[in-house]
Fold:
Amino acid sequence: MSFTSSPLGHPVLACATTLGAALDDVAAIEPLFMSTPDKEAALVELAAVAARLDELRLRVLAAADDVAAAHGSRDAGAWLAHAIRLDDHVGRRDLELARMLERRPALAAAMRCGEVDRERAMVVGRALDELPDDLPPGVAAQAQQHLVDQAPHFAPRALRNLGRKLLSVIAPDLEDQREAKALGDADTRAAAQTSLHTRRRGDGTTDIRIRCADHVADRLMTYLQSFTSPRQRPTATPTTEPTEPTEPTEPTGPSQDREPADDPEPASPGPTDQRTYPQRLGDAFGALLERLDPSRLPLHGGDATTVIVTIELQSLLEGLGVALVGDEPLSATQARRLACTARLVPAVLGSESEILDLGRSRRLYSRSQRKAMAVRDVTCRTRGCTIPAAWCEAHHLVAWSQGGHTDLDDGVLLCSHHHHLAHDPRYELVRHPDGTLTFHRRPPDPD
Structure:
């Protein structure tokens, strides 16, 4: 069907309306009564349609910088995540793929006709981005076409392996040169690719995904295996007392003959410990963090690396009730334990507190005030922004130069991006009753 005009004003909007109406037509249809061949055809065709719809949405997202600017958002991905209630990392990933498709017309075309879905498009795009910048003319285009041609026939993991060996297929001589250079620059490449991502699952646990150099992973595994070594006395849970490290019973380096996700597993720790080896590694990771000395860590957020726990005095004394780390709940029992082992700073409600409101006596907020703001604000106070408090800057809602006071009522934490907007005369800052802020671009001067 061709969309040339629409009461809504644009063919893309007409397409969205038509798709919505078509879905309404089948909303009450029960697939249970479809024939087996019809189900097979529907599943395959709907997957292709979903890929085509994703490509259209990403095409619009790539052109939506003006939307982000109109709302004072960091970028179009951040605005979309807030607008339709996505996690931040989903918005960032969508924007990355949208921009990737702009640079890769053959890949965008494959997705547009339903041959490649979003996940495989991301694999292809990243493989192409990792190619050397100094390829001869035509080789990069040949590499893109080759990988796009293979994408419909392979699952993402297999496609990722093909991407790693792409040059060896289309330009073997160049691959030998690239391999020699890659070996010489291994440390630099590892440093550039090192990253850590966290994702709250909503059930009290957090996924942590780390990409680091092999030698860093080997050191981490050596430390963790000192907690999990079967030479130690087996217990049902990790001991809270420091233990002397022992040598791991297995080599800590990853084998090149297996998948990177597989960890070397030493012998069973004994019949009294029913945890799997990955479970023991996870518990060991928590124990390792608790043994780090905060006084030897770098300063950030205006103070030494500190975790602040807010808890009522009676709950802290009795070990009953609930504490808060930022805006996340923590049992009072855990708070008492961590206060001993991890050197947490308690913000105890009901006890005597230091003076936080300094009025006009000084311009800059003190460390104590920043701690109080971190307990109150948790993140940047702009709606939809989740930059943590430790990375934010203290901002006077009423400028100090205009008579504002350096106290908590006049202070708010803003990330660097939104702090710049707060001082940009092109944007209006609106403070809402719940304490959150929004930014709106002022209309241009008619003159």
About this structure: Confidence is low (pLDDT under 50) at residues 1-6, 231-269, 351-361. The longest strand covers residues 195-200. Residues 37 and 353 are 71 Å apart (CA to CA).
